[in-house]
Amino acid sequence: MPLSEQQIIGHLREALHVEGDLDGETRLFSTGELDSVAMMNLIAFVEETARIEVRPQDVTLDNFDTPARIVRFAEGQA
Amino acid sequence: MNALTTNVFELLADNLDIRPDKQALVDADRTATYAEVAAEAGRIAGYLQARGIAPGDRVVVHLRKGIPEVVAMFAVSMAGAVVVNVNVQWTLEQLGYVAQDCGARLMIVGPRTARALATAPLPGAVERVLVAGAAPETDRFDAWEATRQDAPGAQVPRLDTELAMIIYTSGSTGRPKGVMLSHRNIVAGARSVARYLRLGEDDRLLGVLPYSFDAGLNQLTTMMLTGGTVVHQPVAMAAEIVRTIRDQAVTGVAAVPPLWSQIVRLLGESPAALPSLRRITNTGGKIPLNVLERMPALFPGVDIYLMYGLTEAFRSTYLAPERFGRKMGSIGRAIPGAEVHVVRPGAGIAGPGEQGELVHRGPLVSLGYWGQPELTRAKIRPCAELAPLIGDEPVVWSGDIVRIDADGDLWFVGRNDAMIKTSGFRLSPDEVEDLVCRSGTVGDAVAFGVEDDELGQVVHVALTPLEGFAEASLLGHCRQAMPHYMVPRRFHLWAGAMPRTASGKLDRPEVVRACRARLAEPALDTQGGRPLDRPRDAGTEISGHHAPE
Fold it and tell me: pLDDT per residue over B476-500, tens digit each?
């Protein structure tokens, strides 16, 4: 199932309690907004929702720092 | 090596005559030389002094890992004030509690925290907030750039016995406690660690652990002491860490068990040559044996150090890398300049093969807990068993049970208060977890005791399953690998990642609390049953909880 930016943003708000403005280009990890616990939670969400496997070497800022990058990564893995 | 350094500000300042233009700190988007760090710290110290911050005043630093955080810490020290570095992952509520508890007069925070603080009265005795960035348009908030108007600060001399920092630790019960560290604790700690890790001017240590954690602070203090460089790594992604080690020619990495497990998994799948790396260190808990065993092959030619410490005594023991192969999993012996004894209260000092409580003596013994004299006297007190050797000198009682082997190396057994008492045996949760993890199908495991009418307690294990996990085969593995009284009565499958403390360690109390809460629900009462013999129902699942807010 394709993963959308809106799904990711919804998860960030509901499960991870991220407040304030959030869009596809919001930087999540390089700004310190999310910590490593939240990172593992988000990866589990992406794996479940997009039905893909995220390998340790895929967990980089290039693939995970913004909702848009996560969507692009998930599309590439599907 | 800056031989004359006796206080925290001198750790930085003693480099200025020798290597002003050397790179001291590396952030993702900028670097700073020793002279630049000192100039910026001097400016912020001037700001603090202009706002009336006097020697001994507490100043909270709550910033993301980076150059401004280091500048803020040294600025506070330069003014003779006390640094209270609060982990940036702590919530606003925790931050407010700490500020109030330590009676801080000023806080140095990031723009996001400042915006949140501006919506309510400032906590406790806080009068002003300095923002590392733009400040809210509100009275009592000052922007970093506005400090340029202030004259540089003057260094206030401090005795090395005086209070330098307070490190707040969240214990398993109650509110966080502030551990008071003197300048001597911090400088002696840096000297000891630099000696056994063989650190020098050409070292570049990765800074991934928080500076609000004693083991993380040591990367900064040892590099300042030896004139080396700290490369900041604010994002704890294994792949990003490996990339930084390679791109920044990092020579040493200190991390905690969950991070090592991730890095080992990553390197196992895609090995990387890391020629600059000389040493790696672990602290903050035991790395599972199956992960430890893979490390020498994944880090060829790299010294592997296993360390042990508690904030109240700063750092205590390390296993020398030469003995890693033979003593994998041991916490080794006392670090240079500290003494560690294993005490059996009422029975004497433990000999080979015996176990007892680890006590720590020497210049790293902290000044105790801020504002809590009774707690301090309970934690740091004389030891009757050691009286023939050291009289009534107070030592730190760690609360940790260790075993001493025939060579004098120590092995962590468990927390004194976390031991599981079942059918007359005292079991360490770590021992159970180690054996569970050896199945290879479990990521994280937390063992705990649950009250039982017949046996006193029975063993339960919360775990995160890996690929290939099956409850029946894990139970088979346990029955083979464990004595019968240790075999878990019940597994609690944890969905998602287990919660971590802000310094990255497993949040064991939170895991145990969530599992116990589930057990308390009547529908799940398994009294008298053998829950593992029937198919697991959905009720045994625990949805993983989530990030700190």
Answer: 999 888 888 888 999 999 988 898 8
- For the segment B514-549, what is each residue's pLDDT rounded down to a tens digit? 998 888 875 433 333 333 333 333 223 333 333 322
d(CA B299, CA B278): 9
Whether the CB-CB separation of B448 and B463 falls below 8 Å is answered with no
Residue B330 in contact with residue B319, Cβ under 8 Å?
yes
- How far is it, in rounded angstroms, from Cα A11 to Cα A44? 11
Contacts of A17 (CB under 8 A, 6+ apart): B547, B549
Give CA–CA dist B409/B358, Å, rounded: 12
* Own/partner pairs, B469-474, CB within 8 angstroms, 24+ separation: B469/B441, B469/B442, B470/B441, B471/B532, B471/B536, B473/B439, B473/B441, B474/B436, B474/B439, B474/B441, B474/B442
* Residues of chain A found within 8 Å of residue B257, distances taken between Cβ atoms: none
Residue type, position B252, single letter: G
Asked if B266 has any chain A CB less than 8 Å from its own CB, the reply is yes
Please count the other Cβ atoms lying within 10 Å of the Cβ belonging to residue B161.
12
Residue of B36, B32, B34 lying closest to B10 (CA atoms): B34
Hey, are the CB atoms on B234 and A41 less than 8 Å from each other? no
* Residue numbers in A near B243 (CB within 8 A): 60
Q: What is the pLDDT of residue B524?
A: 39
Q: What is the Cα–Cα distance from B210 to B208, expressed in whole angstroms?
A: 6
Please give the backbone phi and psi of residue B187, each rounded to the nearest 5 degrees, phi first. -70, -40
Q: Is residue B544 less than 8 Å (CB to CB) from chain A?
A: yes
pLDDT at residue B236, rounded to an integer: 83
Q: How far apart, in whole angstroms, are the C-alpha atoms of residue B544 and residue B497? A: 6
CB contact (8 A) between residue A17 and residue B549: yes
The one-character DSSP state at B80 is T
Chain A residues with CB inside 8 Å of B234's CB? 30, 32
Contacts of A38 in chain B (CB under 8 A): 546-547
CA–CA separation, B204 and B211 (whole Å) = 16
- pLDDT band at residue B389 using 50, 70 and 90 as cut-offs: very high
Does the structure's ipTM exceed the value 0.95?
A: no
The DSSP 8-state label assigned to residue B88 in this structure reads: T
Q: Please name the residue of chain A whose CA is at the shortest distance from the CA of residue B499.
A: A37
Q: Is the Cα torsion angle B525, B527, B529, B531 positive or negative in sign?
A: positive
* CB-based contact, B497 to chain A, within 8 Å: yes
Q: Are B68 and B76 in contact (CB under 8 A)?
A: no
Question: Quick check: B237 and A39 CB within 8 A?
Answer: yes
Dist CA B249 CA B206 (whole Å): 10
The enclosing H or E element of B254 equals strand B252-255
In this prediction the pTM is 0.82
Helix (H, G, I), strand (E, B) or coil at B91: coil
**Model confidence over B153-195: pLDDT tens digits?**
999 999 999 999 999 987 545 688 999 999 999 999 999 999 9
Q: How far is CA B203 from CA A7, B223, B417, in A?
A: 44, 8, 40
Residues of B numbered 193-222 whose beta carbons fall under 8 angstroms of chain A's beta carbons: which are they? none
**8 Å CB contact between B525 and B460:** no
